[in-house]
Amino acid sequence: MSAALLRRGLELLEPPGRAKAPPGLQRGRAGPRAAGAARRKKRVPESGRNKATVKGRVVKSAIEEYRKKKPVNHLRENLQYMLKGRLVADKAVAEQVLAQNRGRKSKDQPPEKTEKKKPEGTVFTEEDFRKFEREYFGVP
Question: Low complexity bias located where (predicted)?
């Protein structure tokens, strides 16, 4: 129990004929602490109603609270925003940006592209093959 509740209980038990002492002397406080307590008490804003009552309190709906805290999907708005501006960067600029963001380690470097060798055409013609066949195998 708090001291305030004890004091209120004792005030109720006091005999009715006994007069109340002045508020400063009633609690037996004196000195610099009493002034600080009085200042603190003045600073506390008191509303005109009892906070223990339910009157005037707004009941919050659990469904409304759930809807407020429910995550919102912004995919559609984001896609519209991204598709709205159709500015395509130059390929050289894109390569430069990618090169700047790439690390210096060898694992971060892209593999070097090796140019594929084109198959070279033969210097022999079909006639040369037939002639070779006739000479080598003896087929007329």
Answer: 1-37
